[in-house]
Amino acid sequence: MQTLSHIKSLLAARGIAPRHALGQNFLHDHNQIRKLVERAGIRPGDTVLEIGPGTGALTVALIAAGARVIAAELDRDMCAIVTSEAARAIELPRPDGAPPAHEAFTLVEGDCLAGKHSISPAIAAALDGRPFTLVANLPYHAATPLMLNLLCDWPTCRGQFVTIQRDVADRLMAKPSSDAYGALSVMASLLADVGMISVLPPGCFWPAPKVTSAMIAIEPRAPRIPIDTQRLSAFLHRVFSMRRKQLGRILGDAVAWPEGVTRTMRPEQLSPGQLLELSRLAPAPESGPTAPPA
Questions:
Q1: pTM attached to this predicted model
Q2: Domains 4-220 and 229-281 equal at CATH topology level
Q3: In terms of C-beta density within 10 A (0-12 exposed, 13-18 middle, 19 or more buried), how is residue 247 classed?
């Protein structure tokens, strides 16, 4: 695996520094990288999507595990570095069942998202319909829309095992009536089992971020609950944007209230199941662009 001194030397050799605007905080703690790969249950021949590989510390570990890695990187300098590091890793012994060298690593240069509501067509083409697992130290700015897109619209995604900001992890796992509970909590709870893998202090990264991070596992529920995710997302954004108001004030009186739900309750008091039922009974809002759940 890459050491911190090796990561620094890779950047120094090209006369570059980590770019704060791109959320470049490189995970160098070997124990945490190993923990993430093991929890993802990667087996030789599995297809893995990695977003924001940076210098390739996690990429190298995934290749060593025998994965077929499809990595998306926005920074051209990092693209050159991770391509070189992946090539070296492919030359090392890999387990039986690992893909041939020419299939072990694919780089997609560019943004992982096509706007806030869809995955990049280049990534879709690289995945080519294969089942895959997301394993990544996610850039903070892309984490929430990426995770939601995969959860809602990509049934071929077998799970997401990612490092994200601790506050986003808290929102994903939040329970009703807590401060962190909101639209993101509801969507995640209805579609997946979300669990904590590890909490990472800033010192696990270089440069050290100003926030604590967390590794989480998002594993889709099977069988999946039939949900109109677009309608539910729009509904959740609507009610949680006024989370302190009573439901009757937000939705009006032309609503058939589900059992156990009254017009005087507030959105944060309802369980994910109650909010799903209410979203199906409430009149649809006027059409227009829908913001992703916060």
A1: 0.93
A2: no
A3: buried
Please state, for a pLDDT cut of 90, what percent of the chain lies above it. Answer: 88
Ordered by start, the domain boundaries in the chain are 4-220, 229-281
Task: Write out pLDDT tens, residues 151-177.
Answer: 999 999 999 999 999 999 999 999 999
User: Which pLDDT score, from 0 to 100, does residue 293 have?
Assistant: 60
Instruction: Name the β-bridge partners of 159.
Output: 133
Element (H, E) at 164: strand 157-165
Three-state secondary-structure class, residue 123: helix
User: Which homologous superfamily does the CATH classification assign to the domain defined by 229-281?
Assistant: rRNA adenine dimethylase, C-terminal domain (1.10.8.100)
Nearest to 47 by CA among 29, 70, 17: 70
- The dotted CATH code for 4-220 is 3.40.50.150
Q: Is the pLDDT of residue 289 over 50?
A: no
The per-residue pLDDT of the chain, averaged, comes to 94
The pLDDT tens digits for 248-274 are 999 998 888 999 999 999 999 999 999
Measured CA to CA, the distance from residue 79 to residue 71 in angstroms comes to 9
**Distance (Å) of CA 189 to CA 221, 225, 234:** 9, 11, 17
Q: What is the CA radius of gyration of the chain?
A: 21
What angle, 0 to 180 degrees and rounded to 10, lies between the N-to-C axes of helices 272-281 and 229-240?
100
Residue 164 sits at φ, ψ, to 5 deg, of -140, 175
